């Protein structure tokens, strides 16, 4: 079985793809199936989530591009920057992974969190889309 052992360069052309939900992109060691059907073992250093667009290299030189799979998301909206910042604070205080944009914050769908965010004054809608959360202040991105 092929083993993914490291990151490839940004200029390397992908020969295969690997589409994963966020929960699978944060695990450093696991058995996966490429979109093309081949099984691979992911064996990377712990502590770094795979990002949409990252390129990985297998032990035999295959270049694999990571794609973020569509997931059920809650998308909270506000045109008030302070209100949005408060929502990010309260969600972050609960260690929720967040995708922060100009007037939205998205997180994996959760009706309890939706109710809290609505109480803060934001509107919340459901969406099925790739989840690309912030990597954190100390996170590394290999894209």
Characterise the protein shown here.
The chain has 2 domains: 67 residues, Urease metallochaperone UreE, N-terminal domain (HSP40/DNAj peptide-binding domain); 61 residues, UreE, C-terminal domain (Alpha-Beta Plaits). Helices cover 18% and strands 38% of the residues. It has 3 helices and 10 strands; from the N terminus they run ββαβββββαββαβ. The protein has a 6-stranded mixed sheet. It has a 4-stranded antiparallel sheet with strand order 8-9-7-10. β8 and β9 form a beta hairpin. The longest helix has 13 residues. The chain is elongated, with a radius of gyration of 17 Å. The mean pLDDT is 94.
Report the order of strands and helices: EEHEEEEEHEEHE
Assess the beta-strand content as a share of residues. Answer: 35-45%
Task: Please report the first level of CATH classification, the CATH class of the largest domain.
Answer: Mainly Beta
Q: Work out the number of β strands.
A: 10
CATH fold-level assignment of the largest domain: HSP40/DNAj peptide-binding domain
What is the CA–CA distance across the termini? 25 Å
The helix fraction, in percent, is 10-25%
The low-pLDDT segments are none
User: What does the average pLDDT come to?
Assistant: 94
Can you say what the CATH homologous superfamily of the largest domain is?
Urease metallochaperone UreE, N-terminal domain
- From the spread of the alpha carbons, the general shape counts as elongated
Spatial strand order of the main sheet? 2-6-5-1-4-3
Specify Rg, calculated over alpha carbons.
17 Å
How many strands, what sense, and barrel or not for the largest sheet? 6 strands, mixed
SS-based class: alpha+beta
Total of DSSP H or I helical runs spanning 4+ residues: 3
